[in-house]
Write a structure and sequence with these properties.
This protein is mostly helical. It has 2 domains: about 100 residues, Helix-hairpin-Helix base-excision DNA repair enzymes (C-terminal) (Endonuclease Iii, domain 2, Orthogonal Bundle); about 110 residues, Endonuclease III, domain 1, CATH 1.10.340.30. It has 12 helices and no strands. Helix 2 runs antiparallel to helix 6, helix 2 packs antiparallel against helix 9 and helix 10 packs across helix 12.
Length: about 230
Amino acid sequence: MKPEMEWINNVKDENAAKILQILKRTFSLPTWTKHRRDSFETLVMAIISQNTTDLNTAKAFEQLSNGFEITPEVLAKASLSQIQNAIRPAGLYRSKSHSIKNAAVTILEKWHGTLQPILSSPIEEARRTLMQFQGIGPKTADVVLLFAGKRPTVPIDTHVKRVATRLGFAPFYGSYEIVRAKLETLFASKDYLNVHLLLIAHGRKTCKARHPVCNKCEVSVYCPTKGQWG
C-alpha cells in the first residue's frame, strides 16, 4: 500500500523527542521570533500571509506599515482601496483587505481596540472567537494564539502537515484538528513553537512536497516513509 493511503502509526514518544532535538540542532529559529509583536500586528500579518510566500508577506506588511500605523483605530478608518494598494504584493489583496478592515472595526467596537480579552480567555473559546472574524480560519487563529498570546497550540500549515504525516506523527488524510491534536499529544506544550517552526523549516529545505531529499535528511533514520516519495 502506498504511504499516502495509510498512516504508519509506529512513531514512539522517544523518537518524536529525538527528531525534535535533531531539528533544533539543524535549523536556527527566525530572529523575529525573539521579539514579541503586538497582537493586532500579528493578526494583520497572519491574514496577509495566507496563500503567499514569506517574501511577499514581508513586502506587503512593510508597505502597509509605511502608510499606516498598524492599530485597529487607524485601519478601521482607512479605506479598502488604500489597504488593497498597500498589500497588493501578497496577492488576494481584495479579500484580505476586507478581512483586515473587518477585524479592525470588530476589535474596536467589541473589545475597545485590544485583542487581549480574546487571547486571555480559555484557549478553545479564544479560537472560536477568532474564527468568527471574516477570513480567519483555524491556522490563522492558531498563529495569533501561539505568537501573540503565547498560548499552547500548533498551527498546521502545508509544510507542517506534510512533514508530520510523513514522519508518522499523524494520519495522511487527517483533518486540521486531528493533525494538531496528534502533535500536541506527542510534544510538550513548551515545545509547540519549536515544533511549528522546525517542521516548516524541514519541509522547505529537505522534506519537500516533490522530490524530498531523503538521502540528506537529518531525521531519515526515524522516518517510516523514507524513500517512498520519488
